[in-house]
Design a protein that fits this description.
The structure is a homodimer of 131-residue chains. By secondary structure, the first copy, chain A, is mainly α. The first copy, chain A, has 6 helices and 2 strands. The structure holds a DNA duplex (30 and 30 nucleotides).
DNA sequence: GTTGTAATTGTGTATATGCACATTTGCAAG
DNA sequence: CTTGCAAATGTGCATATACACAATTACAAC
């Protein structure tokens, strides 16, 4: 089970990353830009929970985006909750990648068909919900 | 889609790795031990294809197992195809982890129920098959 | 025998992931 | 005011992943 899931993640990740290559972005980074844009996170810890990502992993992934000037946070210093938001550059880059994202999504949808597409979606939701 | 898949991989990986912790193994390593035990690979490249894993990733993952004395290869030197097989220690460790693996599998099967279990399995197979 | 080429593996660099431990902040208790 | 604790983030270390490039081997062509 875990083998199949990881294999699926590798396969689909490579396809999406190939599309994102021209923008020097990886799909994890786009997903975090999207999460920051959606807002609603009062801290990294809270965001980590919702992403099912280890907190320290998320910390470092966000730092990469900060160093590239795609996100920022008013709060400074360790020990205080961080609330991130997109910079103008981050917002612009996210806008640009949305059509690509949609295109990748549509391609898979066509390859699998509508029926399989929904079944796969709900299957992944179930697997991603375990703790 | 890729987000859901990666999230699912993170979630299920953590659960399996928690069980494997006492043996200082990660689920990727167990999967490679299993693949080596099943045999049938004439080279790292061929094995990488079947695992949907990037060749250089597989190379390094196998090196870790080799350094721990769990697998070995008669062929020596770069440029020649590598055929790995389990060492006695590797075979023993694999044997020991099988019940744990089965237990994790059974737990998920119960949590999800037989019907969802099969649907999830086939969904993951479909996603893992894309190139 | 030399040269060229295809197949294979290895290495450099960067991101992604997670556990264990450390550090900082803020606040409540006394 | 000090002490202690809970919450939050940061750091050290190791594995996992993949792309681009380098190096090696084996073999065919001449």
């Amino acid at each position: 089970m875990v083998l199949k899931t990881r294999r699926a993640a590798r396969a689909v990740t490579r396809r999406y990353n190939q599309l994102l290559r021209p923008f020097d972005l990886q799909c994890t980074q786009v997903s975090l830009l999207y999460a920051v844009a959606a807002g609603g996170f009062d801290s990294i810890s809270e965001m980590a929970d919702q992403q099912a990502m280890e907190r320290s992993t998320l910390t470092r992934n966000l730092q990469l985006l900060r160093k590239r000037g795609l996100i920022c946070s008013e709060q400074e210093g360790q020990g205080r909750p961080q609330r991130f938001e997109l910079t103008p550059q981050g917002a612009h880059l996210l806008e640009v990648t949305i059509p690509l994202w949609q295109q990748a999504q549509d391609t898979l949808r066509q390859e699998w068909g509508e029926e399989d597409w929904s079944v796969i979606q709900s299957s992944l939701s179930i697997v991603g919900a375990i703790r």
